[in-house]
Amino acid sequence: MTTSWLGRLPRSARVGLLAAILAVVPPILTRLVPDLFAGLEANVVGTGTYLAAAALALNMLMGYAGQISLGHFALLGVGAFTTGILTSPTRLALPFILAVPAAALVGAAVALVIGLPALRLRGLYLAIATIGFSYAMEQSIFRIKGLTGGSGGIDVPRPIAGSFTFLKTADYLAIMLVLLVGLWALDVNLTRSRLGRAFQAIRADEAVASSFGIDVARYKLLAFVLSGAVAGVAGAMYGGLVGTVSASSFGYQFSLLLVVLVVVGGLGSRVGVVVAAYVFAVMPRLFVGVFGEGIRGWDLIIGAALLMVAVRNHPGGVAEALRERKDKRAAKRRKASGDPDDSQVAPSLPQMPRPPSRAVDTPLAAGVPVLRVSGMTVRFGGLLAVNEADLVVPRGQIVGLIGPNGAGKTTMFNAISGLVRPTEGRIELLGRDVTGDAGHRRAASGMGRTFQNIGLAKDLSVTENLLLAQHSVADYSGWEALTALRRAPRVERELRERAREAVAALGFERYADTPVRQLSHGQQRIVELGAVLVTAPELVMLDEPSAGMSPGAAENLAVRLRDIRDQLGRTVLLIEHNIPLVLDVCDSLTVLSAGRVIASGGVDEVARQAEVVSAYLGEAVPA
Amino acid sequence: MTSDVLLEVDTVVAGFGVTTVLHGLSFTVRRGEVAGIFGLNGAGKSVTMKVLAGIVPVRSGHVRYDGADITSMPAEERVARGMAHVPQGRQVFAALTVEQNLRLGAYPLRRRDKSRYASVLDGVLDRFPILAERRKQIAGTMSGGQQASLAVARALMAEPNLMLVDEPSAGLSPTVVQELFHTLKSVAATGVTMVLVEQNVAFGLQLVDTANILQVGQIVHAGPVADLDQASLATYLGVGRLLGGGTSAALAGRRAPVKKTRVTSAKTNAAAKAAPVRKAAAKAAPVRTAAAKAAPVRTAAAKAAPVRKAPVPGDDRG
Amino acid sequence: MSFFESLTSGQNLVLGLVYGGIYGLLAVGIVLVYRGSRVLNFAQGEVGTVGLFVAYFLITEKGLPWWVGALGAVGTAVAIGLLFERFIVRPMVSATRLAVAVATVGLLLFLLAVEFRFAGESPRSVRGPIAGDGTSIAGVVVSPTQMLSLAVTLGVGFGLSVLLRRTDFGLGVLAAADDPTAVRLVGVRLSRVSAFTWGAGAAVSALAVLLIEPTIGVFTPGFASELFVKGLAAALVGGLTSLTGAFAGGLIVGLVEIQVGSLTLTSGVPGVPTLAIFALILGVLLLRPSGLFGRGVAAA
Hints:
The structure holds 3 protein chains of 3 kinds. By secondary structure, chain A is α/β, with parallel strands linked by helices. Chain A is elongated and about 90 Å long. Chain A has helices at about 5-10, 10-30, 40-65, 70-85, 95-120, 125-140, 145-150, 170-190, 195-205, 205-210, 215-240, 250-265, 270-290, 300-315, 315-335, 410-415, 440-445, 460-470, 480-485, 485-505, 520-535, 550-565, 580-585, 605, 610-615, and strands at about 155, 160, 165, 245, 370-380, 385-395, 400, 425-430, 430-435, 445-450, 540-545, 570-575, 590-595, 595-600. The model of chain B is unreliable at about 245-318 (pLDDT under 50). Chain B has a domain at about 225-305. Chain C has a single domain, classed as Orthogonal Bundle (ABC transporter involved in vitamin B12 uptake, BtuC). Helices cover about 70% and strands about 0% of the residues of chain C. Chain C has a two-stranded antiparallel sheet. In chain C, helix 4 crosses helix 9. The chains are: A alpha/beta, B alpha/beta, C mainly alpha. Chains in contact: A-B, A-C, B-C. At the A-C interface, helix 6, helix 12 and helix 14 of A face helix 5, helix 10 and helix 12 of C.
C-alpha cells in the first residue's frame, strides 16, 4: 500500500496545513457568496469556535484530570479583559498577537490561584468554591473601574496585520480557527504524553496514580494551569469577536453552560466537546432556518427539554454513548473468537522487559534487606490499627503478610507504600530511610504495588496503562510533552515498544487496545501485575493477588509468583487470605493479629504455632 | 414443602461488578434455629448477607423465605414480610435519638398495626435497660457497645420472623463483645430465627445451633455445632494446613456431610463432579500437589478441568 | 457607616435577618435535595421564580387575593419538582452525580426558556400580602411584608426539621441522607423519600422567592440566580447536612452581606459584599468543611 505524500509529512506540517485550509475558507466564502455566509453566520461559527476552545480548556481539567470547575467562564473573562487592556486604543493599544500569549499567561496565573485551595477540595465542595469564585469575579473584580472599565467594559479592536484590518467577522474567524487548531494540537500532544496519562490516572484513582510515581498535587496544579491558559486564549478569541467585554458577560450561569457542553459532549473526549460547542452555537440558527421565525422562544424550550432527556439517557455524554456501542461490538467479536482462559496467567512472564535506567538493581550490603519496617504504629483516632510491628523483607524472597480480617495488614501495607502516615516507626527501603518520603517518591524509588480494587486507570486501554506505569522512567519535561519536540517523541516510542513487549509477555496481544474495564476481574489482575512489573521495581507489593480469582488462575498465580522471584529476580511482599497459596509460595511469613505481629519467620515454623491458628479461629467468650 | 424451613438459599450465584463472589451458595435455615455462616475474609460472607437482605441482585439461583420465592423481591418488601437486620458496623441513625431509632425500626410494625407499637417499645426497653436510660440521647454520641445494643433493639422493634445479624463483633473491644454475646444469646432464647454471619468463629460457634462454613463462595460444610472440632473447623475454613503436616491425613476416613448442590451453570458443573471428589480428596493420602489441598471444593474441580502449567515443585510446606 | 455603626444598626439587623431568612429557606431547599439525591439542584432558584410568575398572573393580572397567588406559586413549583424527580432524577439513580447536576442545569435552562417565551423579559412586580408601607419600630423601618417574611421564614426554617421528626416517614427522610441502605433495611422506600425532598425543596424555594420579591422590587427571568448563590453559601456554612444548620447559615450570610455592604470603608470597591461572601465560602471550605453546624465529612 503506497503512503500518500500527506502521510509522509511530519505531524507539525500536517497540522499547519489543516490550519491554513480551515483559516482560508471563511474569508473566501464571505467574498464569494456574501448572502449565504454573511456576518450572522460568521458570528455563529465564531461563537462555536471560542466555545470550542473553552470546552477544550474545561475538558482538560474535568475530563482528563477529573477536577470540577464551575467557574471556567470567569477564566475566559480574565483572558478577555487581559486582551482588552492590552489592545484597546484607550489602554495599551498593543497588537493582538501579543495579547494571545498574555491572555494565556494571566489565565494560567489566575487558575493557579484557584488550583491551590482546590488541592484540598473535592467534588461538590470544589464545585461550590468555583461557583463562588465565578460569582465574586463577575460581581466584584470584573467591575473595578480602573481595571476593567467598570460596568461599561473595555473595547477590543479587531487585529491589524500591516495595512489589513480583520474587520469582517469572517476574516477574524480565520484567526480564531487557526488558534483553535493550535489548541487542538496541544491537546493531542497532551494526551499522547505522560502528562495526559498522569491526569487521567489522577481522575481514575489518586492512590493508584501515586503508586505509579505521579506527584498528584503537582499534576493537579498543572492541570489547572494548562486549563487556565487555554481558557485565557479562548477569552482572547471571544474578546476580538464581540468587540466589547464587560462583567455581565461572565456570570456563573455561563460557566454552568460550559459544564453542560463538556458533559454532554463527553468528558474526556476532545471531539465530543468541540462538536457539542458548535452544535450549541449553531442550533438556534438551525431551528429558525428549518422551522421559521415563529420557532423563536420555543427553540430554547425544546432544546432544554432535549438536553434533560439526553443527559438522563446517556449520562456519560454523546462520546461515551458512541464509545459504548463500539465497545459492545468489539466485545462481541472477541467472544466469538473465544476468550483465553484466565487461568493462563502471564505465560511469558520471564520476557517482561526492563527499562535501561533500571537495568541494575541497587547494590545492597550483606544482610541489608530490601525492606525493613521497625516499630510501626498506626493510630486512627482512638483505634490502634498497627501496634509496634516489625517486618523484614530480604532480597530475593517472597514474604507473606497474613492474619485474620481487621488485623491491620492493609493498613500496614498502605503505610509502607505511603498512602497512610504511621504514628511511629521507621521504614527503610533498600537501606535508605524513606519514612518521610511521599508515596509517589517511594514508588519512583523502586516500590511497586497492587490494589484490592485493581490499581489501573480503568477507562484507559491495556497499552495505555502500561505506558502510564512507566511514568517514572519517561524522562522528558512538560514543555517537551506539549510541543512534542525534542526528546518526547523518541522517549514515547521507547515506552511504547516496552509496553508492547510487556503485553506480549502477559499473553494479552488481542487485548492491547481494550479498555481495562471491559476485561474480567482475573484479566484485570493480570494487566495490573504487568503494570507493576514493567519498571522492574525492587520491591513488588501485592495486595491479595488471588482475590476473586478462579482456583485455576490462583494455582497458576503461584507459578507466576515464583517466576517473579526466580526469573525476574524481584523481591515480593504479599498480603493474602488464601493460606494454601501462601504456604506454597512464600519463603517467610509475618502474622498480624489485632495490629500486633504474633509470629514471624520461616513458613514451617510459623505455620505450626498455636497462636496463628487461633488467630484465624477467633476468640471465644469466657463462659 | 417442609414447613419448618424458614429460609432456603438455592445455588445462588452473585457478586458485584465483574467479580463473582458466590459460586452456587446453598443452605437452609429452620424455624427457630440460630444458623451461623462462617468463613475467612473474601469467602463471601458479606455478599451472602447482602443477597439475603435484597441489596445485591442474584445472578442465578433462588432464595425462598417462608414459602415464597423472594429472589427478586426488593429489600423494603422483605422487611415488610418480617425480615430484620442488624447490619455490619451497626449503622445506627447517628443523627437521631435512641427513641427515634427504635421508632424507625418499628416502621414495618407501625404500618401493619400501629396499636402494638407502645407495648413492643416497652418490651424492648425492658430488655435493654441501657437504652431505656438514654432514650433521648443522640445515637451517634453513644459508645460502640451501646450502638450495638441499639442496632439489635432496632431490629427487634419490627417483631421479626427472621433476624439477619452481620458480623456483630466486628470492631468491638473484647469486653463489649462479651456483653453483646449475652444480648444475642438472650434474643436467640426468645425463639426468633436468626442467621448470624461472623468472622470471629469461636465467638459465633457459642451462639449458633448450626454452622455453615463458607469457602470461595460455597458452603463446604453444614451441620450441628457439636460435630465440629478444631481440626475439622480449621480445614473447612481453609486454614487447615496451618495446623501442620498431616492435617489431610487426619481427615482421612472422616466423612464430610455431602451438601446436595443442584447444578445450574457450567461453572458449577465442575462442582457437581467435585462433590464425590471431595470425599475422595479427604480420604486420599495427600500428594503435595496443588489439587489435593484441603481447600475449596473447586480446586479439586480444577483437576477435572484441563491445562495445568508447570508442575508445582514438590516443596514441603507445612 | 463606620464599622461600629454598622454593627449596632438595628436597621442592618432587621434587613440582614429578612434577607437571611430568605437565603436560609433557599438553603433548606438546597440541603433537602442534596440529602435526598446527593446532588446540587442548580434550578433551585428558578423553580421559585416560575412560581412567582404564576403568582403574578393570578394576583396582578387576575386580581385574585394574595393567598391564592401564593398557593398557585407553591403548587406550580411542587409540581415541577415532583415531575423532574420522577422523570429525570429517579431514572438516573446509577448515573454520576455530575450528570444529574447537568440535568438540573437543563431544568434551569428549560424554566428560563419557558419564562422568556410566555412572559418575556420585561420587569414585573408582585405586591406583598399585606398592603402598606413600612412602619417604624424603635427607629427601624420595616414593612409588613418583611415582618411576615421574617415570621414565615423563621417558622418554616426552624420548624421543618421539627415537623419531620414527628412522623415515621419524616424520620426516614432525615435518616436517609446519612445512611440510605440502613433506611431501606427498616422498610422505607427511598423513591418516596426522593420525591418528598424534591417536592418540599421546590415548595420552600417558591415561598422564599415570593416573600423577598416585594423587598427587591421587580423581578425578571433569572433574577434568582444571585439568590441561589447566596443560598448555596448559606447551605455550605450550615454544613450541607442539617436543615436547621442551613437556615442558620442563611441568617449568617444575610447579616454579613448587609453589614459589609453598609460600610463606608469599602464602598469604593464594587461588589464587596460578594467578596465577603466568597471569603466566607472559602473559609468554611478550607477551615471547617463540615460547616459550622454540620457533622459531615470533608470529601464529597
